[in-house]
From TrEMBL:
One of its GO terms (biological process) is phagolysosome assembly. This is SRPX. It comes from Micrurus surinamensis (Surinam coral snake). Residues 82-132, 133-191 form the Sushi domain. Disulfide bonds join 162-189. Pfam families: HYR, Sushi.
């Protein structure tokens, strides 16, 4: 180390306060050399170039070969990825002329060009992003509705429900698929439940003296339906209330329909009796 210092034609005197010992000068030279080597290795990339730390000598050689070639910033696709091909070396996926194919994850669709090229202005030939796929908005079924986990976006599950008195027709649960269509059949709420109607009990009437008929009254029954409420439009089969009925049994029938066409029927009897005296026997 001392010899190296003197070979450069420098002399050292302990009496000169400004001069440095040969060992210190040698160590300083070594440190400067190390810094120059390290600086040269890390100065190959610049901010935004996408250049990663050098890992082998072959990479150093390749970069020195194409150090004058413009570089684009790295491509980062949220919810997607890029497959790039460089015309220079396989180590450089964002050098001038590099072509990248953009792909999105399942459930996402690409907005922008599918192929990007690194241009001489250090910019890619377009802008891209992956957007979550969305299915068409579901139609609200009459007399029902639906609840969804994540709206109409990909993989969201929606469950249909119906109002009281209605039954679900179709798939109760549907899911937004990758093709932006809902799974299953469209659901609807159908009134399958028949209405209710209650007829009066048997109506018995005794004819007035010297008559063979009797006038019978009753209240016309009402129909009730879970979906439609009270139904007053009923169909009568037989004589209406307030009619004169002859002696014997008479069948009365009422039928009620709801708006969906479901029907319900009830029946009862009107029974008329005539009082007669017993047979007279001739005296002996």
């Amino acid at each position: 180390e001392y010899m190296g210092a003197f070979h450069f034609g420098e002399s050292w005197s302990s009496g000169n306060p400004t001069s440095q010992p040969p060992r210190i000068m040698a160590e300083t030279s070594v440190c400067l050399a190390v810094l120059l080597v390290v600086g040269s290795r890390f100065s190959l990339g610049y901010q935004g170039s996408g250049y990663s730390p050098i890992e082998d000598d072959e990479d150093v050689y390749a970069h020195n070969t194409y150090k004058e070639t413009p570089w684009c910033s790295p491509i980062k696709v949220k919810y997607g990825y890029a497959n790039c091909r460089s015309p220079q070396e396989r180590y450089y996926r964002n050098v001038l002329g590099t072509t990248c194919d953009i792909h999105c994850q399942k459930g996402y669709e690409l907005h922008g060009p599918q192929h990007l090229i690194c241009q001489s202005n250090k910019r890619w030939s377009g802008k891209v992003f992956c957007k979550q796929k969305r299915c068409p908005t579901l139609s609200m079924p009459p007399n029902g509705g639906f609840k969804c986990v994540d709206g109409a976006y990909f993989n969201s599950r929606c469950e249909y429900y119906c109002s009281p008195g209605y039954q679900l027709k179709g798939d109760r649960i549907v899911q937004c698929m990758d093709n932006k269509a809902w799974s299953g059949r469209p659901a609807s709420c159908v009134d399958m439940e028949p209405p209710r109607i209650q007829c009066p009990s048997v109506k018995e009437k005794i004819a007035e003296p010297n008559k063979l008929t009797s006038r019978v009254f009753w209240d016309t029954p009402e129909g009730r339906d879970t979906a439609d409420g009270i139904l007053t439009d009923v169909v009568l089969k037989g004589l209406p209330p307030g009619s004169y009925f002859s002696e014997g049994d008479h069948k009365i029938q009422y039928t009620v329909y709801d708006r969906a066409g479901n029907k319900k029927t009830c029946k009862f009897l009107v029974r008329v009796r005539v009082r007669r005296c017993g047979k007279l026997n001739a005296p002996d």
